[in-house]
Amino acid sequence: MSIIAKLKRYVIGAPLNPFNPNVFRHVSLVALLAWVGLGADGLSSSCYGPEEAYIALGAHNTHLALFIALAMAITVFIISLGYNQVIELFPSGGGGYKVATELLGSYVGLVSGAALLIDYVLTITVSAASGMDAFFSLLPHSYLSYKFMSEGILILFLMTLNCRGMKESIKFLLPIFLGFFILHVGLIIYGIAAHSKGLLTIIPETLEETKYLSSTIGWLPLLALMLHAYSLGSGTYTGLEAVSNNVNRLAEPRVRTGKWTMFYMAVSLSFTASGIILLYLLWQATPHAGLTLNAVVFHSILGDSLTGKITLIATLALEAGLLFVAANTGFLGGPSVLSNMAIDGWVPNRFRYLSSRLVVQNGVIIFGLLALLLLYWSHGRVSLLVILYSINVFITFSLSLLGLCVYWIKQRNNASRNWLFRLLFSFFTFVITSSILCITLFSKFRSGGWVTILITCAVISICLLIKRHYLAIERKSVLLDKELYQPILEKNIPSIPIDPSLPTAVILVGKSTGIGMHTLLSIIRLFPRHFKNFIFVRVGIVDVGSYTEQSKLQKMKQDVPATLQYFVDYCHQYGIAAKYYVGFGTDIIQEINKISEKIDKEFPNCIFFSSKLVFIHDNWITRLLHHETALTIQRSLHLQGKEMVVLPMKI
């Protein structure tokens, strides 16, 4: 093993066998780990969501904020219950993208998927930036010049950690998550108990002030003020969709594990977010330059004693740490959505394939690079990133819940008696999320909302062009398979003995039988009567779609040999010796190398052949959308001293 290979093995980890049924336990998550890995995004929003809502109330925050706290807690549970339906209906994962695609159509699904992709990139960027803001607030101001660079290093570190696999990254971050939750719950309970007298008077004072404001400024302006503050706190609800997007990564039984995970997320987020707003009210927290409102209120609660200062430092450090864990959520959920969109042809095919560690490594890398790009563009300004973040989250929320409404209307005759209740609940939740979306977009359009619409539309446009290209290639491939189909005229054809010493052509076959037959017929035409043996090789590639459903893996194990047997039977009916080799794995190059070593030992006089699609207008875009697999295999075999010929096939 080379030094580079050893270094890669050390950083990424040893390969995993996707066909080992015990391996899925290694990469799947029980409810507790899922709560950590997928719930950190939501829980971390309590570091900035409640503060945005509280400050938006202005001079009235000491009174009306109680309504915002209650509304936040209720909204968290309503959205969570809505997503429980998504988990039930789509246990294979995909979340908002799958719901919109299956229930509202592929183009609506594209809108939801594009919003989700941007959302997960922003999850990484905004969490890394705000986490470093919290961390550097503990350091002297002279260190601030290193903050931007540290944010980039953090993203690169998390990207490497996730290339090792999901469970490893979560175990690494588990102490931070639990430390944040335990310490903040303790401080909220202590802060409320220490100010218990104020708790008794806060409700009557709030009702009295609400009555006074309604009589002076009117009910409509009062409701507008509260809705504005409520919508600005919408960042609090981000991350709740992560479980439904990644149900396929959960331990069996997936639906039950997903619902328990959603319950943990709802309880933890509603308690911390509402509890922190209640602390603002009780301790009359006011903004201070260079300090978060959480830092202000926790300092008031803990005081200036040595123990209080140490606890405050630990609290703020854990807040920064949890935001780092939340950044990791983008690496967990984003590539999963990207792979589902790749299966449907909206993004390049390479994003659907798993690495040797059974993670969507290409997706992890692209999300890391895009997060770095957004970080550079925004210069780490959390206020701008949060606006982009919230709008995209609620686009997906609203489309998912609208899809559920359509589903229950269509199923009213086949569903159980409670279909009407589920329909009304889904519609009610849809009204809430779409209202938050509209208010946020309207109030923050000039402050950055327009950028969200622009980026989302750009992603949608690119996806449409990619889909158009793949559909054109698919139509031509289907036509080619029909044109080059060669019928097997005889059944139970006796096999022809193979003489390994004779010239042998090894043909690498892909999914298209037409392309494989084109390669075979081209060899016979170019080298008449030269090759006496034909060996057919195909590797079944394990991607996200097949790995998460064991039935698809078993079907692939049957389909791949059946395709190769068709070519062998075709050769036998014309008196040509033939056999096939089959392999399965996540890396086609690695599997071909293994098979080629066996073939080279058995057939020393062999030459490898493959076909490559050649486009009239070839450019970097076509090379991005289509694997350069044939050329990569050719280079690999040439380095091993084996001969390989790549035959062009014009499309």
Structure report:
This protein is mainly alpha-helical and 651 residues long. The chain has two domains: 3-467, Amino acid/polyamine transporter I, CATH 1.20.1740.10; 504-650, HUPs (Rossmann fold, 3-Layer(aba) Sandwich), CATH 3.40.50.620. Helices cover 70% and strands 6% of the residues. It has 25 helices and five strands. It has helices at 3-12, 23-27, 31-44, 49-56, 61-89, 95-104, 106-136, 147-163, 166-194, 196-216, 219-232, 242-245, 254-282, 293-302, 306-343, 361-378, 382-410, 419-443, 445-483, 513-526, 544-547, 550-573, 588-602, 620-625, 629-639, and strands at residues 504-508, 533-541, 577-585, 606-614, 644-650. The protein has a five-stranded parallel beta sheet with strand order 3-2-1-4-5, sandwiched between helices. Helix 20 (513-526) links the parallel strand 1 (504-508) and strand 2 (533-541). Helix 8 runs antiparallel to helix 16 (361-378), helix 17 (382-410) packs antiparallel against helix 18 (419-443) and helix 23 crosses helix 25. The longest helix is centred in the last third of the chain and has 39 residues, at 445-483. It starts with a helix and ends with a strand. The relative contact order is 0.12.
Quick overview of this protein structure:
With 651 residues, this protein is mainly alpha-helical. It has 25 helices and 5 strands.
